[in-house]
Amino acid sequence: MVFAAPNEALARAQGVLASDPSPWHASVAHQVIGIWQRDWGDIKLALHHLRRARDLAARAQDADREGDVLATLGVALVHSGRTRQGLEALERGVVVSSGHTRARVLYRRAYASWVLGRHRESLEDVRRAIPVLRQAEDVIWTARALTLRATVHLALGAVDRADADFAAAEAMWDTTGQEHEKADIVESRGLAAFQQGDVPVALRLLDEAEEQYAKLGTPSFMLYIRRCEVLMAAGLAAEALAEADSAIGVLDGIGGQSTRKAELLLVAARAARLANDPHTAIARAALAVRLFAGQRRPWWETHARLVLIEARLAAGRGSGRLVADAAAVAERLASFGAPAAPEASLLAGRIALGLGWTADAERHLAVAARSRRSGPPLARMTGWAAQALRARAAGSGRGVLEACRRGLDVLDDHRMTLGASELRARATARGAELAALAQQASLDSGGPRRLLVWSERWRATVLSAPPTRPPADAALLGTLTAFREIAARAAEARSDGRPIPALEREQRRLEREIRSRTLHIRGGASGAEDRFDVGRLLASLGEVRLVELAVLDGRVQVLLCGGGRVRRFEAGLLADAEIEADHVQAGLRRLAHPGAEARLPLVEAMGRRLEELLLGPAAAHLGSGPVVVVPPGRLHRVPWALLPSLRDRVLSVSPSASSWLRARETEPPPGNRHVLVRGPGLATGGAEVPELAGLYGGPAVPTLLEHEDARVPRVLEEIDGATLAHIAAHGTFRADSPLFSSLRMADGPLIVHDFERLDRSPYRIILSSCDTARLASVGADELLGLVTALLPLGTAGVVASSAPVNDHAVVPLMLALHKGLSAGLSLAEALRDARTALPGDALHQATGWAFTAFGAA
């Protein structure tokens, strides 16, 4: 009962002890309380009750009862870090018990061996137990043994064997009332999905398991560990670190299992390393190493040492000693049959290369490279990274490019199994090293065309295919509606100066639920289509000049495309450009308010400095025609129209040359429908919208949505498949969660997740709002936000602002922009003319610079 209805079993056991029971019955009751405390409470209390249960079993003179309690006590001692005592208790349990009971004891010794990382010993014991349990028709314990055997197979990388055992165990659990263990098998299936590279299914199953545990009131620290592993694989390392640290706090608060604390510390160390926080990673990993060593868990200790070496290298502590340490860890992991062994070999080779030890590097990298042919995607990525480094050390540029291509193809296929654009974007971080190696090899070969190809290979890949549309999920739609209502109430309370902690808590809860459901969506498209073709780009450009900025070793490389060729120029340091861009943003924010005219010359000077850093000598070769700028993700906030050589041009920005080509080739939808939307609370009341309604005539008479008509469901219905949508609304960028960046409608925020439900986003969309062009840079070179959500959904052109803007100054800009559009101009042409038509004061000039045309429509 303790695993079917844990809290009820605890109460019943306490009731037995209150009724003057016999030694045999009292032994059972103490054992139940000990199991409850061991798994969900205080490990010290668990040991107290289990020792009492053991003594009472001896008094009852029942060898099988004593053997059964000794097995439970042995597991608890192992979990408390007293490995030697625990194994002695388990061995004693095997000796004193017999038959069916001995099989149950063997299962628990197998479990303890799994906790300790002694996988082969675990398999031996569980294989001895299963036939006896089956012969006794003991469904529950047979299912437990099969689940354990599957988990051990997973630890050894034998996924197919694990699947077979999980399936058999799940069929058995369905015939029992063991609710906790039913949740455990769902959790274990989530782990299996993760091992097979299916992150969305893994997240869904782990969330299902968490819901089932919550109903039982029993926390599962193993679930936290597994979810952190999946979050890290999905590129959500900061979230994994926060979750692991939170779980450690909970475990410490209840005096829980020492073994689980060590495992959580290891997960936290890995997450901190992936989140570029090497000092936190060193602290967590060092403590994990000490705990695992004290618990006599060499398999786990070796994994913690691997993370410790990685973190020390990331902190700049590369040395010959680290090479030896990494090599020793790789050898030990290989002896355990651990799938992480190639990672350690790659690490040893990478450190050796950094020290110039080419022979040692080749030896270690050759071992790591063996994993490139088989296994889950991230393991093959490790192998191809090792192969690329081998080729670079051997001076083979062709070998580097081939290994990088093969490795990124593997990651492409993995990335496209992910339906959520956020996961796709974050997953690209795994390919950053391969992309950088290929770019450097291209630069060394001196060919700007090749550098352009590799700059495009891993830039804005999320935009190469639309995200998988969320299913028609009534629960998700209901949650979105509830989120909008709560967010609207919170915004109203803030404007009134009322405290809103309860509303904010509920809003965060609803955001977590929306995001969770979105991350469960699986992708379906192949990642190997629509490869970038330089010839096709050059043929499409005509008089246009496309400026793609690549960053190698921290310096901006300008690739100027046009006139049938690609030329390379070297500009300034990326770090300097980022600092200058921040200063410009601060200047534009100040100029959005009246009375800041004196700052205008300063902002213009910053624009000149930015041009030197970002374009360098290429600025003199732009010609006189239109320009398309393709910046790296870290420069997305640059107001490009402020740069002197771009100020009076037809100028557009694109996340990649590939996305510009797709936008250029996108056909407008039939019907020529125009939609104008006016959200609430604007300082001008969205004054341009009524005037725009009279600007378009004939079949293009627009649909006007304002007041109560400007509600999210109606807005989405009208803009779906429209030729042009103009939305005047308050915009909010969420740096903490960019896909909750929003436009304020009458019933609450219209968020990126809403746009992703459109069959086709508007061909052209104008966002007359603050901060709508702000984007979060994630992964290798990806951007998340409103603009990048629209581009893969059918939108060929967007006008949006990268800074706060003055509502009153926006009105004449928007009217002039639409005047140009109605005359047949493109967005970039109309925006250029609209800036020229504005008054020359600082307020209007800054407003014009803040808006950017994206795409090619």
TrEMBL record:
Gene3D superfamilies, per the entry: Tetratricopeptide repeat domain (1.25.40.10)
Pfam families attached to this UniProt entry: CHAT
Q: CHAT domain spans which residues?
A: 605-855
Query: Can you say what this protein is called?
Result: CHAT domain-containing protein
Q: What is the lineage of its organism?
A: Bacteria, Bacillati, Actinomycetota, Actinomycetes, Kitasatosporales
